[in-house]
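Hey,
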Amino acid sequence: MIKGDNGFLPTVPLRLAVRNGVDVAVLLLTEEGRVRGDRDIVFHGAPVHPSGAARLLGEENGTVWLDAGLTSVEGEIVRLLVVGSTETGTLRDVDELSVEAFAPDGTSVARYDVTDAGGETAMVLAELYRLAGGWKFRAVGQGYANGLAGLATDHGVEVADNAPAQAAAPLQEPVPFRPPVAPAPIPAPAPVAFQPPAAPAPVPVAFQPPAAPVPVAKVQGPVPTVAVPAPSPEPIVPDWTFGSVFEPYTQTGRDNDVITAEGLPPGPVVVDLAVDAKGYTGLWPLSRLNKDGESLVNSTEDNFRGRLLTHVPRNGRLRLRLRADGPWRLQVLPLAAARRLTEEPMECFGPDVLLHTGGTADLAIRYRGNDNLIVYLYELADHDDPTTLPEQQGSVVNEIGRRRETVPLPEGPLIVHLKRADGPWSARLKHVQPHSRPSSGGGLPNVTEIDKAQGRLRWGRR
């Protein structure tokens, strides 16, 4: 997994390995995101939770082992945070920092390698949390420069003003533990064949067609019969030409499917997905060998809406595997169809792809969801290959829960990718400066191409 990813776990006793050489603690949190008291903090001085749901087993060769008994977690507890910290130096100095979860038979069921640790001395590495009757693992990687004191305070632990920076001496000896090279089977319930929680039955939705007819792009292959809402017509702003311009590809359907869009120009594109049903939504690009690529959508939000950033291969054939429990509508759009950031607030819900074409500015985001908010930037000013994107430099925002964030933006052209945003949000620019670059090259405006694109993209935005 990469930072921000999540996935379902089997609801069985798990064994976790935290590498390499860090101190480990587990915080058991209620719905409010807080511990109920000292008993909900498991560390070397109190290695076993009273419920048996979390137990530190010991350390060997730099790896700390712990048990997470998901079947023993009290109903009041909804999240288990796995925390790593250092007594000297920072987490940047820790080689191959990671956390991995194993099923009772020794099978690895989740792993997160921390690749962007900085000057922090404490970090929430991962969390196990309840969802839809089951449990999920999330790769968090949220660091605290003010150490365990700051992390603990954020989760309801009262830290005395005169308390030492690091944890106090152990109150009791750690539980002796000598793990084998691979984790030994846990003598608990027999291995459970895990099935993701059943999604609620789809709720029929009455779709309202637009008042005026809108052009619909040609669909390769048989045309499904399910009607879905089309976006409202809105003229495109002529200030973006990075990447090819093409007629939007549209397909509608119902339930799980594989979508194939032929004849597209290679390069980055926007996928606009709307699912009108309750339950899980997942979307993956398929390789030429029909293997899943990195997940574009992994959401349990009802009636999912979102815009996603993906890449058309050089053969011009984009294939996507969709999991959905009801009617859906999918469009493949050129980057030029994405919405522009301005000083006027935009209100939206779900992941999105936004464009910035001006000079340096500050991006103010207000996020009102409960899950991850993850934002990436792609600077295109000195990138002349429209079939690729610049190398990803890491997220500029990676937080959980309601947030107010302000991010400094470099000069455009720039793609602002809200990769994860399962909730409502608003965004606007502040302190916008004039553009200092000439209006040519690197994705800046080309009037001829914009004129050609106007008619084809007129309705391609939501």
